[in-house]
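User: Can you predict the 3D structure for this chain?
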Amino acid sequence: MPEGDTLFRTAAGLRPYLVGKTVSAARTGGPGAVPQVGRIIGREVTAVEALGKNLLIRFDNGLEIRTHLRMNGSWHRYRPGERWRRPASRARLVIEVPGAVAVCFDAPVVELLERRAEALHPSLGQLGPDLLGIDFDAREAVRRLRDPSRAGLPVAEALLDQRALAGIGNVYKSELLWIERVSPFVPVGDVDDDTLGRLVATARRLLLANATSECGPERVTTTGDRGAPGPVYVYGRAGRRCRRCRTPISSVRQGHDIPRTTYWCPACQGARP
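Assistant: Here is the predicted structure, written as structure tokens:
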């Protein structure tokens, strides 16, 4: 599932083929198609950037396209005339430049906006510090997690709030809570500052390792742990033995708006209240 590291890799893969090139054709399709996409035709791509779970393609006329992949979206790159690996009916956005075709499939969010309007955008303008940003501010991330509005929120849910810090998805949420031995159910207000700081630091370490070539193409949270027999500690391992204490891993759906499955060890991290 696309998380911050996935978008970072996607941007890095598209950048050499799009940046500095002039758009020769562009089109959108599916629900929420963007009729104004023709405004980027004839414009030069100036940047391809990941911002949390968003991918931004910027142009020399001040416009930019934002895509959010949610659970099923993905970006592909093809040579002109090359057969696509998914049906054209699933293409939400197609951008053609000399020598390359970039196709975004199945993304529920595709929008065109002016870059100067980012600060006012309902999603981009509220994003917390990007865990993969070169200027990531860990103190600001902790401060946002400490916001009174999140004090009673289970820490597992708070970590997924992109307004607190951007880039963590469901895999990293479960993994970093297990690594730091924190119950996913404890309210943020009951987590001390040192523990919150460790959670933020571990999240950044894992995302950076997976965004670069350190872990290879597969997402790995056990990197550096020679005794770990697999790529993850708890995610997707409900019913299997904890790799630390041998207690069976449990799972539960958490969250109100979009419930997500949390995996944790009842012995290492505490039983569910």
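Residues 3 and 169 are 5 Å apart (CA to CA). The first strand starts at residue 25 and ends at 28.
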